[in-house]
Specification:
Layout: H1 3-10, H2 20-23, H3 25-29, E1 35-36, H4 48-60, H5 72-84, E2 93-96, H6 99-110, E3 116-119, H7 126-133, E4 137-140, E5 144-146, E6 149-151, H8 154-164, E7 168-172, H9 184-196, E8 200-204, E9 232-236, H10 238-242, E10 250-253, H11 257-267, H12 277-289, H13 291-311, E11 319-320, E12 328-332, H14 342-349, E13 352-353, E14 355-356, E15 367-371, H15 376-395
Parallel strand pairs: 1-13, 3-4, 3-7, 7-8, 8-9
Antiparallel strand pairs: 2-10, 5-6, 9-10, 11-12, 12-15, 14-15
Helix pairs in contact: 1-13, 4-12, 5-12, 6-7, 6-11, 8-9, 13-15
């Protein structure tokens, strides 16, 4: 589907729809007039087939206790196989209300209070919250950056495994916010180190469908022909791909029998085990009918990234990390603005609501994360406002 056709067909006005991104600006940023490019959802409606399936089900009018749809796994596994060459078995699959909620459950299932949990900042900030809220010990092995290109620091990673002895490692793949799709060799190295040191890997692969560069996403499930299934649990969901977050439906994939039994024995203490009827229906329909929609969306995201890069050429010192996966641009403004001035320039002068770098790592004050899953018109307006604010700031000292 052509980009203009996709945007015209699917863009939606989201103000006054109980949208966290648009309607919580006063609460979160103390300014309701900001242009929001922060929280990772989209200004595009889900495929019409999904909406129609939900309408048909709602018109039935009964929302009592429900069974899992027997066809769900077939649709989900067919998508995984076609898009990512992932071969699933039905008994591996468990459901949750969201990937963040899954992290809380998995941390509690597979570690005890005081145990170490390793993460790699800058990283999605709920990782920090999940570790601290469950009273585990936060262990960090920061990613290394060379001119905005991030990679694992394997020496530090193994040192943290050896010295801190964490029970769990939470991997973000593709990585939010730095936009990396990890190479197969990179994943093999970190998984091998975790297995060597007896560390269980929880892989957040919710952005798996957003390969926007030339790299192809490789799931941790496929590394070394599945040799790490005994120390790996994977989380993903249709919610990020098809803009379904409020329907509270996600997957936990546990290939290992022993880990699966342990999860099943403990999860009953943390949540109800019934599934979300409408969330599952939406996900199934999206997997069955949403491929053309997703391909159209990916075209919009690629265009928006090009717009961002081209408009920021006025400030060549700004570092934008190469976007391989996700729809989130990671931007280092520290070469043009003092770190302590970032919010003044971005929020007060440019009138933008963004995710700030320090939310992802204390070391990343002066960075911003910008959401590209919006219309090119909104993205152009946002970048133009940022450029104008930067030019104004620059002019104050010339």
């Amino acid at each position: 589907m052509a980009i203009d056709a996709f945007v015209d067909r699917y863009q939606k006005e989201r103000r006054n729809t109980e949208s966290l991104k648009w309607d919580a600006l006063e609460e979160r940023f103390e300014d309701a007039d900001l242009l929001p490019l922060w929280v990772a959802d989209m200004e595009f409606q889900t495929p019409e087939t999904v909406t129609n399936a939900l309408i048909n089900r709602i018109q039935h009018g009964v929302f009592g206790y429900s069974l899992d749809n027997a066809d769900y796994f077939r649709s989900f596994s067919a998508w995984q196989e076609k898009r990512h060459n992932i071969h699933l078995q039905k008994e591996w699959l468990r459901f949750s209300t969201g990937v963040v909620q899954s992290l809380y459950h998995l941390i509690q299932c597979f570690s005890e209070k005081g145990d170490g949990v390793l993460i790699q900042p800058p990283v999605y900030y709920p990782f920090f919250h999940a570790v601290k809220d469950t009273e585990r010990k936060l262990v960090v092995s920061p990613l290394k950056s060379e001119n905005g290109q991030y990679r694992f620091d394997l020496k530090d990673f193994e040192e943290k495994l050896r010295v801190e002895k964490p029970k769990l490692f939470i991997l973000c793949s593709p990585h939010n916010p730095v936009g990396r799709i990890w190479d197969e060799d990179e994943l093999l190295e970190v998984l091998s180190l975790c297995k060597k040191h007896g560390v269980l890997v929880i892989a957040d692969e919710i952005h798996q469908d957003f390969g926007v560069g030339n790299k192809k996403f490789v799931s941790t499930l496929n590394i070394a022909d599945g040799s790490f299934h005994d120390c790996l649990i994977l989380c993903n969901a249709p919610s990020k791909t098809f803009n379904l977050a409020s329907l509270l439906h996600s997957h936990i994939i546990i290939p290992d029998d022993k880990l699966r039994r342990q999860f099943d024995q403990r999860i009953i203490f943390y949540q109800q085990t019934e599934n979300n009827l409408l969330g599952q229906l939406a996900g199934q329909t999206a997997y069955e009918t949403g491929e053309e929609w997703l391909d159209g969306l990916l075209g919009v995201i690629r265009l928006n990234y090009e717009i961002l890069i081209n408009r920021l050429k006025k400030f060549p010192a700004i570092i934008v990390s190469p976007l391989e996966g996700t729809y989130l641009a990671w931007i280092d403004l520290t070469t043009v603005i003092p770190r302590k001035k970032i919010k003044e320039i971005v929020q007060k002068k440019a009138q933008l609501a963004v995710d700030y770098g320090e939310w992802f790592s204390e070391e990343c004050e002066g960075f911003i994360r910008l959401n590209l899953a919006t219309t090119p018109t909104i993205l152009k307006q946002a970048v133009d406002q940022l450029v104008e604010a930067l030019e104004s700031y620059e002019g104050e000292f010339n």
